[in-house]
Amino acid sequence: MVVENDAAPSTLDGWDSLPPFPTNIPVASVNNISHARLLNGDAEELKNLLSSARTTGFVRIDFTDTELGRRFLDGADKMFKLAAKTFDLPAEVKLNDNMLNHGDALLGYKGLGASVVDKDGTRDNNEQYWIGCGDIAGEGHSRAIYNDVLNAHMHEMKSFQDTGKEMTDQLLMVFAAVLGISADSPDYLPKLHSHSQNSGSHVRLLKCPSRPSAKAANLQPHTDWGTLTVLFNALGGLQLYLPQSLLGPDQEAGWYYVKPERGTALVNLGDAMVSWSDGEFKSNIHRVVAPPGEQAQWARYSLAYFTRPNHDVPMKPLGRKITAANSEEQYPTFKEWAMRRALAGRADTFKKGDWEKGQGTEGKLAVEARA
Ligand SMILES: O=C(O)CCC(=O)C(=O)O
Ligand SMILES: [Fe+2]
Q1: Helix count (H) and strand count (E) of the chain?
Q2: What's the CATH code of the domain at 340?
Q3: How close is the Cα of 184 to the center of ligand 2, in Å?
Q4: Which domain holds residue 144?
Q5: Which has the closest alpha carbon to 63: 267, 226, 268?
Q6: C-alpha atoms less than 13 angstroms from C-alpha of 276 in its C-beta half-sphere
Q7: What is the mean pLDDT of residues 97-103?
Q8: How many structural domains are present in the chain?
Q9: How far does the centroid of ligand 2 lie from the alpha carbon of residue 34, in Å?
Q10: For the whole model, what pTM was predicted?
């Protein structure tokens, strides 16, 4: 019998108590970028950022070398502690916050097994809290509700999300410049993301209970729906699907673990970036499975700041990607995009064909990776 170790390791301290990520497994190659050099406009780091955006859609940013970055890491530590307390609450307390029962904001609690991980409707092995940035900031409240533990820590979540916003806006400015969208345009990317009620941006706490021998994924293969995800975790388990085109001749297309690195977070691009860039930027397909090796005995906590477009923002080409042909086309708003993907992934109403309906921007890759 497996004894579950149910600690919530934080990003900077706590790593030493965890078994190490194995050295003998193949890992996805993800560019490492220094936050300080990026902020200073270092040409090499900008090149790394953009080549990641155009290939794997994932980059690792070292936050130890800026004041903002260190605040972000400190804030993340607090969020991991909050996650441990929150997920320890009785199931009925958490289910009271069930996101399916409080309006259509897609905020609140997602219970263990509430989503599917494959086309047969197999249930997931993760629980999540999605805490809306608007709710945290107190800028108009969605109909979502949150338990007392979360409510008592809104001020900490506010600092964490403010740091996340500042940091992701820095990246959005770079992407806007590349897409030829100037600061005075209504489409300037930072302007499309607010922390008000009218936004899907949120802080997400996740826990995958230990389930070392399970074949099914803990969290389904997917692309992220929104703009940018900043992801913190100490244990392995996250995998990227890498096609042959991104690998060397001696490697095979398939799922590769991403190695967690202390003092860093992963930043990945979501479907909105693909739509706005008309496919130039990539939103890669990823999933969460049991952590590798000895790490599999541990419950896996992760934390993300999701920056998502405001609900009414269209998922259409912007800036230099606008053409006579595509400006005539109809595109969904972000809200429509998110609702379609969320509803198709529900386990309680799942029926044949829903899996396919929940697709994002995976395109051809999805056929290979999600089969
Ligand atoms: O926990 C992780 O490492 C990934 C989570 C994820 O992909 C998501 O919440 O969208
Ligand atoms: Fe994701």
Answers
A1: 11, 12
A2: 2.60.120.330
A3: 31
A4: 4-369
A5: 267
A6: 31
A7: 93
A8: 1
A9: 23
A10: 0.95
